[in-house]
Amino acid sequence: MSQIRYTKDHEYIRVEGGEGVVGISEHAQSQLGDIVFAEMPSVGTTIKAGDAAAVVESVKAASEVFAPASGEVLAVNSEIEATPGLINEDALGRGWLFRMKLVDPNELSGLMDESAYADYLKTLG
Amino acid sequence: MSEDAVPKTPLHALHVELGARMALFAGYDMPIQYPSGVLAEHLHTRKAAGLFDVSHMGQALIEGPDHARNAAFLETLCPADLVNLTPGRQRYTQLLNETGGIVDDLMVARPLDADGLLRLVVNASRKSLDFALIGERLPRDVRLTPIAEEALIALQGPLAAATLARLAPGEGTQTMAFMSAKPVRIAEFATFVSRSGYTGEDGYEISLPATQAEMFARLLLTQPGVAPIGLGARDSLRLEAGLCLYGHELDESVDPVEVALAWSIQKRRRAEGGFPGAERIRKALAIGPDRLRVGLRPDGRAPAREGVEIVSADGAPIGVVTSGGFGPSVGGPIAMGFVDRAHASIGTPVGLVVRGKALMARVVGLPFHPHTYYRG
User: Fold this and answer.
1) With an 8 Å Cβ cutoff, is A61 touching chain B?
2) How many angstroms away from the CA of A20 is the closest CA of chain B?
């Protein structure tokens, strides 16, 4: 069973076992518009929750992606380099950014589940 | 500021109806993009035709006893040869401050059959400053009249000429040369048209009364291949075309020579001077400027944005990026910036410091995407 959690900065982490797949939310990709470049963290680096871990860039602007949790980067989505538009087409699926090993699953309790995130988006107007 | 107090263009309701994402630009609530998005809008303009609402820009008339008087006055503020601007033509120039820095860049058109009249188009963000500057220097027999009650609509792209010709048969819009300007009746609308634009494509900028702008825009949008384009794509199009944007390449510290606009200072003005900052500008023309605006192509895929530091191959600071992003038609990152003269030749390898790392790039010629202006 996987569960998805969102940050207030519109990253998601889909957790299964002790690992999480990180990307940006459907809302975030739609706000950014056409994504033309993504810079990924290096595999093997350890990141802390809240660190700037990746960058996604639209035609207009660069936007940092903050790590939703702490742990080691296990893999990055190599398809994104050639086809960054995948983030727009399928943010929650093929547009994932990186996979990480979680050091402390309790960190996730501070994040929002699907319905809490939907409520949060409504507050943003 | 209350929502009602934010200035809107005459096409505001149409933008909202078309689903535009609106944002404040130069104080106006403007369409940044429509639902198709910046990338699609950019590419559409290059292959068909884009309609741009640029009504936020400042339009004004200079009226005096005759052309010679008007032109002689404007030449005290601008370095272009305006005295020899022929009727029916338009010229690109700059308003300069006392040190030769650029207060604004603008278009000056001399309509046919109106000897004592010039039409100006200036930047939205600078118009009140421009009009104040011109206003305080006006000789007694020359008047400046801002025309706030006119909209300005650009139609740009390879289908622009055929589109206007269809709506304005017999008006000769198709054979107007680049940078010519004249009154044109388009369908039932009385307009003033220049063959110019800000995309590098063939196209027109069309002035008409604000009260008719929405009807006119709707008519254009019914034509095959014409789509509304937002300011997002307008910016990526002008960057690919190597065109300057005020507040980015241009500001009051920058002179026309270093920003590679020396072509807009005609021979007579170079020889005679008589414009603000003439000493600095003529010196830069004679011996070359200390720094120069150049095109930059990163080797990789990462865009380098405005403000990014430019370093030499051995890491020494040599300049700064003024505009940078992704060029949809180029298919990769592109940028413009100032570099010192020793590093300004085409092919020079440079580094662009993005997020602490120097990304390899090369100095390249401008534009990034070839201009397709109609030169007759």
Assistant:
1) yes
2) 26
